[in-house]
Write a structure and sequence with these properties.
Largest sheet: 5 strands, mixed
Helix content: under 10%
Strand order of the largest sheet: 28-35-34-30-32
Structural class: mainly beta
Number of helices: 1
Distance between the termini: 95 Å
Radius of gyration: 44 Å
Strand content: over 45%
Shape: elongated
């Protein structure tokens, strides 16, 4: 419609509304005075319009449950809406649909203007058949009706007849013929069926006598097709129609006609008496076309140019408002039921209703299935789901809320059941035996995950002599297992039998927790004939290893594990360990700092000699500025295990339990930078720059920071990783359990052959081709020509970390408080062992080999 047409329509609409208002008042007075015995004009109430997803609506139908089916010729679809206007679905791919009907079985009949056909679809939109001969059966199928027996009527506006078909689509005859007389049609536009009166009502545009001007006529036929009566209401008459488009009838046989020129709905009794008009000056209709009244007394009118469907409550209509239209529940296989939700139902009609609610799924239940609601009264219905016995997947259910015919609404319920891990542990009992004062040989537990989700597990025990606080992850596969070595420390136990319990907890897993009984039998000690293990040499004692290296213990704190070492130069080195131990080397002597701290310290790194950080238990972060030690700890209850710094102009980063990562924001207060939200501990961190940092942890966890965010890398390896170091962004190494060494070449991680099964705890290098890995039982490996060689260090205590200076010094710290040292020129030379003995630095004269 152009602007001129719109102006004309608006002017006409305003004038007509004033006439209708005056006439409606006069009609009411006449009826009250007993002048007329005609049917009364219905009371009506303008309700909230339907606008959701509506675009250029034309014809309309309603099914027994009150769902709306709206044709949109411009969009080539049928829009399906709930009775409250909520979008449900669309039947798309049509060709200029101009009419629609729905039969008692839920089949959808669609008239196509371009194809000249009526297509029949199942309720799920499956195409079934076409009426008659298919395409070309009609000139213009302008209206479709289906009676209670299933007979189908099609108003063919182009051929001036109404064609009839049985429910299978077979043509059975026609109603009327072309012409202007009784029982004939000129440009029939719509029809409706008055089931209560047993009449077919057809609206056509009979030519005005003696002119070529189209008028408006309504004719009545028996269900057998015989003409009964009719009346003409042209625009020059009182209650006249100008451009009638749609027709419907209510339970009192009152007839409603949409007029797209007057933008109103005209109401007549079934003898032709004009009763009044349905309109709302504040919410006017704009080119009304399709019109339908449902079983609940709600009148729907398509307002094509307003992209809406206007709704009116007629007389004592019924209505309900149900919200929300969808509920979503999430559960986990084997877990407790999700928290219940609720729906609210309001009586939005004018009559008291008997409300019924029902669910269609066995796992779905309602707190209230029947209620009596007065007008504007509401009820809340609790909805609960029970996923017991349901396999992982998505389930859909439906709650149907009904207040009688035509007043039915539905709430869709979606339940998503996530898979769970399933824990199995074997064996269920363990027996260990050893001599008093020695540790029994490790035993093995096998953990199997037969579920369809990753299994995060942790081990704890109730005895100090049983290994405690280890964790891991199993992939979502029943074919993988993890062997857990249960080590005991029975050195302080007297001969006898001891009992304990190991608990394996699979977080959120079925079969969790699993408990394993442990029996430990200690017999009286029998000393071996000789000392089979080498003792740790005293500080100052040099000894020769392989590959031309000589070692020396340069410092030792008996019984206190040293966990990390770092230096800014060969004359400024820090080593940290348990019970708050901090040792500092100034180029001459190793001295122990008096920290007053009893927490275990796990890592040390610095940006310079005047900015060194130490991390440890209870979220501890200490800062050494060259003279003083300051506590700069964040609020974090767990263990911070390692730290890395670039230089004084960049941030420092620290890692710890449960995927926690912290930074100091280039010198300001330390705070949580990122949490991977994983149960694994992060154990090591290193970066080539502030925008390329790697963190590693348990279960093969590898994270990468690119300067803006952390990314979890799927390396394909699940061994616990303890440390990471690199010489450049394309030469990065990570070490861990069972001699694991992973190498990153800038594009992918690959496993290297380490030649050992000992756990590797630390890694450091001073060149691409001089990298040291240290670990259990004094293990030290050297990378040479892409091959890892074993160095004989001469001690059997665990080596936890290594560091070296620019002059080829190499230091390693051990679990018994030892710091061992070697100095070499590369490729190889004999070393200059330096050690601290009785508080005095000593350098052993050693003949240097010539470099090759």
């Amino acid at each position: 419609m152009n602007n001129t047409d719109e102006a004309i329509y608006s002017a006409a609409r305003g004038a007509r509304f004033l006439i209708y208002a005056v006439f409606a008042s006069l009609l009411t007075s006449l009826v009250m005075c007993g002048v007329s015995s005609a049917a009364l004009m219905p009371d009506y109430e303008h309700l909230a319009p339907v606008t959701n997803s509506v675009k250029g609506p034309m014809a309309m139908a309603v099914d027994r449950e009150g769902r709306l089916y709206v044709t949109e010729a411009g969009s080539n679809r049928i829009l399906v809406l709930s009775r409250s206007g909520r979008y449900l679905a669309s039947l798309t791919g049509l060709d200029n649909p101009i009419s629609v009907a729905v039969d008692a079985g839920g089949r959808i009949l669609v008239g196509s203007k371009n194809k000249g056909s009526v297509e029949v679809y199942a309720a799920d939109f499956t195409p079934l058949f076409k009426l008659g001969s298919g395409d070309g059966e009609f000139s213009r199928p302008n209206g479709i009706c289906v009676d209670s027996s299933g007979r189908i009527y099609v108003v063919d506006m182009g051929k001036d007849i109404v064609r009839m078909y049985d429910s299978s689509g077979r043509f059975t005859g026609s109603l009327g013929s072309p012409g202007n007389n009784n029982g004939q049609f000129y440009r029939p536009v719509a029809m409706t069926i008055d089931e209560a009166a047993g009449e077919i009502i057809v609206l056509d545009r009979q030519l005005v006598a003696g002119t070529a001007k189209q008028g408006a006529r309504i004719q009545f036929f028996t269900m057998a097709g015989d003409w009964l009566r009719g009346f003409t209401r042209n625009s020059t008459q009182e209650g006249g129609m100008v451009k009638p488009q749609g027709i419907t009838v209510d339970s009192l046989s009152r007839i409603y006609v949409s007029d797209s020129y007057q933008n109103a709905v005209l109401v007549y009794d079934n003898t032709g008496v004009f009763l009044g008009a349905v309109y709302d000056l504040d919410n006017p209709l704009r080119a009304p076309l399709g019109i339908i009244i449902d079983l609940a007394g709600r009148l729907y009118v398509t307002s094509r140019m307003a992209d809406s469907i206007e709704v009116y409550g007629i007389d004592r209509y019924t209505g309900i408002e149900v919200f929300p239209g969808m509920l979503k529940f999430a559960a986990k296989e084997g877990d407790a039921d999700p928290v219940s939700q609720n729906i609210s139902v309001i009586n939005s009609g004018t009559t008291t209703i008997n409300l019924e609610a029902a669910a269609d799924a066995s796992w779905l239940s309602l707190s209230d299935e029947s209620s009596v609601l007065d007008r504007d009264q509401a009820v809340q219905i609790d909805v609960t789901v029970d996923p017991t016995g349901l396999a992982p997947g998505e389930y859909t259910g439906m709650i149907t809320v009904s207040a009688g015919p035509g007043t039915i609404d539905v709430v869709q319920v979606v339940l998503t059941v996530a898979p769970s891990a399933k824990l199995t542990v074997t064996p269920s009992e363990l027996s260990l035996a050893a001599q008093a004062g020695t540790a029994p040989s490790p035993v093995t537990l096998t953990l199997v995950n037969t579920g369809a989700a990753p299994l995060y597990w942790s081990l704890s025990s109730d005895q100090p002599w049983l290994e405690n606080n280890i964790a891991g992850i199993l992939a979502e596969s029943g074919e993988e297992s993890v062997n857990v070595a249960i080590k005991t420390d029975a050195a302080a136990l007297a001969p006898g039998t001891y009992y304990g319990t190991i608990t394996i907890t699979g977080h959120g897993a079925l079969g969790s927790p699993a408990t394993i009984g442990v029996t430990l039998m200690l017999s009286a000690r029998q000393d071996p004939p000789g000392n089979e293990n080498p003792s740790i040499p005293a500080p100052g004692t040099p000894w020769k290893g392989n590959l031309g290296r000589k070692w020396a213990v340069v410092s030792q704190i008996d019984g206190v594990a040293l966990n990390a070492i770092w230096g800014s130069s060969g004359s400024d080195i820090f080593a940290v360990g348990d019970n708050g131990a901090i040792l500092h080397y100034d180029g001459r002597n190793w001295t122990q700092e008096n920290t007053g701290i009893d927490s275990d310290l796990k890592g040390v790194w610095g940006a310079s000699a005047s900015s060194v950080y130490v991390v440890g238990e209870n979220g501890l972060i200490l800062h050494h500025d060259g003279e003083n030690l300051t506590d700069v700890s964040p609020s974090f209850p767990g263990i911070i295990r390692n730290i890395w710094c670039g230089d004084e102009s960049t941030k420092c980063f620290a890692v710890g339990q449960n995927g926690a990562i912290f930074d100091d924001d280039a010198g300001s207060r330390w705070s949580m930078h990122y949490s991977a939200e994983i149960p694994e501990s992060l154990n090591g961190i290193w970066g080539s720059s502030e925008s390329d940092i790697y963190a590693v942890g348990d279960s093969g966890t590898i994270l990468n920071y690119d300067g803006s965010g952390w990314t979890l890398i799927n390396s394909g390896f699940d061994m616990d990783l303890h440390d990471v170091w690199g010489s450049a962004d394309d030469n990065v190494f990570a070490v861990g359990r069972n001699g694991t060494i992973l190498h990153f070449n800038g594009s992918a991680w690959a496993q290297m052959d380490s030649g050992t099964t000992a756990a590797l705890l630390g890694i450091w290098g001073n060149a691409d081709d001089e990298v040291y890995a240290v670990g259990e039982d004094g293990t030290m490996l050297l990378l040479q020509s892409d091959q890892w060689l074993t160095l004989e260090t001469g001690i059997d205590e665990d080596l936890n970390d290594a560091w070296g200076g620019r002059k080829k010094e190499v230091y390693a710290v051990g679990s018994d408080g030892s710091i061992i040292f070697v100095k070499t020129s590369f490729p190889w030379s004999l070393l200059f062992p330096i050690f601290n003995q009785n508080g005095k630095q000593v350098q052993l004269p050693v003949k240097q080999e010539s470099s090759r």
